[in-house]
Amino acid sequence: MTSDTDTLTAEDPITGEEIEIPADVEVGEIIDSPVTGTELEVISLDPVVLEEAPELEEDWGE
Amino acid sequence: MRVGILYSRIRKDEKLLLNELRDRGHEVEKIDVRKERFGLESTTAAVDDLDIAVDRCLSTSRSLYATRFLDSYGVPVVNAPETGDVCADKAKNSLALAEADVPTPATEVAFTKEAALEAIEEFGYPCVLKPVTGSWGRLMAKIDSRNAAEAILEHKETLGHYEHKVFYVQEFVDKPGRDIRVLAVDGEPVAAMTRSSDHWLTNAAKGGETNSFELDDRATELVETASDAVGGGMLGVDLMEVGVDADGGADDYTVHEVNHTVEFKALDSATDVDVPARVVDWLEAKAAALADDGEAPEEVNA
After folding, report:
1. Residue B142 and residue B196 share a domain
2. Residue B167 sits in the same domain as residue B191
3. Alpha helix segments (H runs only) across B231-274
4. Residue B212's domain spans which residues?
5. Lowest mean pLDDT segment, chosen from B39-43, B58-62, B132-136, B239-243
6. What pLDDT does residue A3 have?
7. Which residues of B touch A26 (CB under 8 A)?
8. Is position B95 within any domain?
9. Which of A13, B28, B83, B114 is deepest in the core (most CB within 10 A)?
């Protein structure tokens, strides 16, 4: 759901609160929850669904 | 051009790249490797008609396998799986640099804690113990004493994945509180920055302060040679200054590693260079050269 031209609203999967996220997010993108700071992954855009992002794994990096 | 982006996580780096590609009117196929299957002759991933695929996998294991499969289907992929194979393993990385006569820190690999302890004692203290795979400075140990060495080796041997029993021991390079990260495309530097910290680990991922850096001829030459040594592509070449005098001038450099899925958001912020634009310039040139060579991917979707 678009709240204005710059943000979307979505449910924080951890707290259940409605949060605002940048309107230009895309599927797979990682954002920080404005409520808890937890990393969230954008799962879909229509509707906007967020999930807690996967934990760091040992082989992640450059 | 039609560009595939292999990913499992869209970070700021990937977002910058995607935006630049789309702004230039390129068709982008995002391929989340977590959702795909890769068979011996075909894949569920939408790789048909890609002019080029860019590996942006955060996970090294996924990066190595996904690029290998795409390469087997005839899909042009950067970086090449051979480059990933060398860069993903610090021992192979060090060997490739040494074989190309690129100055690199003295390194030994040992397979038991007893042999590793001998290597450590021979290097003297401090020296450095690193996992052969991994990034962002994780699980790196600066060893200051025999007691510390014994404890770390025992922990690694007891608790670790089998790769932690490949003990990668390296001389400690007394760098001037900073190292240098260069993003290069097929050996040509795009941008360079220093990463400074009071801590011995200066990685940007560890919170090191970043500043733009002007490469001199020697550093430029080493970046080109190091890139060639690992097979070329879009790479993050890490150098340290050695023999630094009171005025801050360095006698030479040592290249400690080359990274194959290089992050560039910090470089983009620290320098005046439009890094994603330069990367896309390179991708366009690469795709055009492949088209001229007549390298077209086959129909491989499952």
Report:
1. no
2. no
3. 265-270
4. 178-260
5. B132-136
6. 47
7. 10, 15, 18, 30
8. no
9. B83
